[in-house]
Every structure is written in structure tokens, then in C-alpha cells.
Amino acid sequence: MADQYDYDLFTIGAGSGGVRASRMSALKGAKVAVAEEHRPGGTCVIRGCVPKKYMVYASNFAKQVKTARAYGWDLPEKPSFDWPSFRDAMNAEVDRLSGIYARNLNNTGVELIEERAEIVGPHEIRLVQSDRVVTAKHILIATGGTPSKDWDLPGVEHTITSNELFHLKKLPEHIVIAGGGYIACEFAQVFAGLGVKTCLVYRRDTVLRGFDEDVRTFVHEGLKASGVRVITHTVFEKIEETPYKPGFKTVTLKNGDELIADQVVFAIGRNPYVEGLGLENAGVELDEAGAILVDEYSKTNVDHIYAVGDVTNRVNLTPVAIREGAAFAETVFGNKPTAYDHELIPSAVFTQPPVGTAGLTEAEARRTGAEIDIYKSRFRPMKGMITDNPDWMMMKLVVRASDQVVLGVHIVGDDAPEIIQAVGIAVKAGLTKAQFDATCAVHPTAAEELVTMKEKWTPPELKAAE
Ligand code: NDP
User: Fold this and answer.
1) Are strands 174-178 and 263-266 parallel, antiparallel or unpaired?
2) Domain boundary at 241, 268, 295, which?
3) Pick from 303, 333, 363: which residue ends a domain?
4) Arithmetic mean of pLDDT over the chain
5) I want to staple 5 with a disulfide (CB 3.0 to 4.6 A). Which of 32, 135, 155, 357 is the partner?
6) Which residues line ligand 1 (CB under 6 A)?
7) What is the pTM assigned to this prediction?
């Protein structure tokens, strides 16, 4: 296809969105190159979802050992965990997956350029290491995001982010994590499960702001139950090297508390990765949060420049970036304008137990002005019943009263992410409570609760007045 340009498409960033867009565009006949300054795979594969989930698995064994004993297994009194051997196995798998990304690009005829790329003109891209300039008819920016360290805090240089957690030389003795979002909660529980003294410092009262209130409370209590010290309503004031213990820092909080820790982690959000990209050289506009502004087709204000994934700060999830990348390829090289629908995207938080959520929270549903019915169930799934500390699980349906459409489903408990993937189909399809109820239960499962909730939940104060 390319004529006056070197490429039909030049993609910057070989993460989930960039790779999908590049491969699909090449399959449609475009001449495509993708530049990657680190390794193919992006945040999800290299320093996000994939290694994080391995860490969740590793951490969860502590509990499984206890459960196994209750089931009659004779296991050593103090089973030990070897961080270096786990870490190396995890990173070897990351290497394998990164290799697959590179091979898949190659198999579809996409040229992978393992260099940093910067935009130097509307159609011109400079490859920094080899110091050459190439041209492209279309440019796709898929550079993702980076962990935020935007905090004018004395001692910020003593902190690390999620990027470094996968490569620690040794397991920390005491880890302090700032933040109360996905990353803070997931890692707090990972490290607590691995036997690390763990403290989470959150500036408000309950973690996971934006999630359904029942989910937030359940996760917040779950963090404490799994041994995480949760300190709320305060933030870090300063971090200093401590004279008492080499390698340790003193974290002073605004409330006056002092914590001594060998790892201090910022999990205070992620920023679109646009630094030094040269967007100004092509006139690409950003929003006030520094994300690339795009329309529903992922097109920037410049006609031939598009952006997908976290760099656009729409819904920052891997599968969303992949769908945006696919829609881009259809639009630009498939002659079929395709806008990815960002409504009702299911997601999971891999706390322990994990969260699965699809659709509206109760608060969001009420804000629509519609009358809302709530169905809730809190129960102890059967697996734990013969242990001395059975887990709880929570399921909640948010239903619009007028037509009984299930607007949201929220689950916290083992397997919630697996369950929500299937329930997400029903929520996306706009099914009603009656259609949920008409579906036969699968027994014995925890998920059967979703089709057997009969009684509407009434707030305790209303119940008392009945
Ligand atoms: P989030 O935006 O989810 O959470 C950031 C947290 O840091 C919030 O609790 C916020 O508090 C707090 N915070 C922000 N600034 C400060 C500050 N200056 N001082 C103290 N606390 C602060 O970001 P994450 O880094 O956890 O995750 C980034 C994104 O990555 C997520 O939004 C998600 O899209 C994606 N992700 C998805 C995962 C999944 O699907 N399982 C896993 C991990 C990441 P407040 O609530 O007050 O704003």
C-alpha cells in the first residue's frame, strides 16, 4: 500500500493495544512498523496484569496450605516460601510471553523496531537509537501509562512503584504502600499473604473509590482480616533513611505516625505516557490530565494520527486497549468505521478474595433517577465450611424497578473474576431479573446464588419500621 511514505502505519508502543492494531492492519494489507523502547508486551505482560496475577497465585498458597490441613493433608508446620525461585519463574514466563508477542508481529508481517520512537513532524518519526527518520501515512500512539510519582514529598527518591515490585532482590520485611486503588489493594494483599508485614496508607475512609459501596466495605475489611494494617485519613509527610537499620526508611505520616519499612511503594495512580514523544511537532492535543484527546474512532485532532489504550485515559484496562486497537484497524484499513462501545465493561480486582464487577454500582444506578431494587447475598461458600475460618462471599444485583433490567452485578469472593466474565454477557445484553431467575442453578456452586436471590434487600432502618 505505502507509496510516498515508508509505511502505511507506524505504531509507537508494542503493548496490548498497539500490537493488536498493528497485526490487524497488516492482515488487511497495510505496511506496518511498530516501535518499542522496552520489550514487546507492554504494561500488561511485562509489569502489570500477568506478573501481578502470578504474585496473587503465589501469595494465595499460604491460605491453601491451611485449607488443605483442614481437609486432612499432612503438611509441614511452617512451609517456607522462596521469593527468588518464584520471582525467576514468574519473570521467565514474562520473557516467554514477550517473545510470543514479537513472533506474532513477525508472523503477520509487522516490522518490530526495538527502539524509542519520537514524532518529529506530522508524518515523520525519529528512531532515537539508530538516529534515523522514517515516514508514515498514519501514526498510532499506543504508549500506555506509567506509575505516578507526582508528589512533592521529601524523600520521594526512597520510593518504588509497581514497576519495581516484580524484580525485588529479596522479599521485604515491612512494606508500606500509599494509595487505595486497584494496585495498592492487590499488592497489599499479595505481600501480606507472602508473610510480609504490610501497611497500606489511604487518604480517605474506604479503599476502592468508584466501586460499589458494599464491595468497598468488603474489600476494606478483607484487607484488615488478612493482616494488612490499614491506616486511613492520612498521607505521607516525609520519608527518610533510618539510622537504626541499614536499608530501612522512616515514613512519617501527616497524622504523626512513624513507620519503619524496607520498601515504600507509591500506588497513587498512573499517568498517560507522552513524555518526550514530540506530540507538539504534529500538533496533537492533550486533555487537562495529559491524556491524548481522541474521538469515538480513537482519532486525535490530527486526521491521520490515532491513539489507543491507557495513553488516552478512557477505560484503562488491557482488553479495552485491544478492542480499541481492533476498531482502529477496521476503521482505517478495513474501510469500516468502528467505534468501540465503552459501556458496561466488566472488570476484576485481584484482591484476596477477588472482586468481579459488571455494570452500574448502586449509587450510579440511583443517580439515573430510576427506582432501583437491590438483591444482596452474603454467605460462606462450602469449601471453607470444614476449616476453622470459613470465608465470606458477597453478591449483589442492581435492578431497575420499572423493567427489571439488571443494571449491575457485584461479586466479592473466590472465583469472582471468572464468574463475572459470564455474568458480564447478561448485563451487556440487558437481561432482566426474571431471565436470571429462569436460568437453572448449577449446584453446588457459589455462583448459583445469582439466580436464586428471591428477596429484595431493604435497608435496616426501613425494615425496622415495617
Ligand atoms: P487508581 O487511580 O485506581 O488509585 C489511585 C489511588 O491513589 C487512589 O486510592 C487515590 O485516592 C490515591 N492517591 C492518588 N493521589 C494520591 C496522593 N497524592 N496521595 C495519596 N493518595 C493518592 O490507581 P492505581 O495506581 O491503583 O491503578 C491505575 C489503573 O490501572 C487503574 O485505574 C486501573 O485502570 C488499572 N489497573 C487495573 C487492574 C485490574 O484490572 N485488576 C489492576 C491494576 C491496575 P482517592 O481514592 O482519594 O483518589
Assistant:
1) parallel
2) 268
3) 333
4) 97
5) 135
6) 151, 178-184, 186, 202-204, 209, 235, 267-270, 316-317, 347-350
7) 0.96
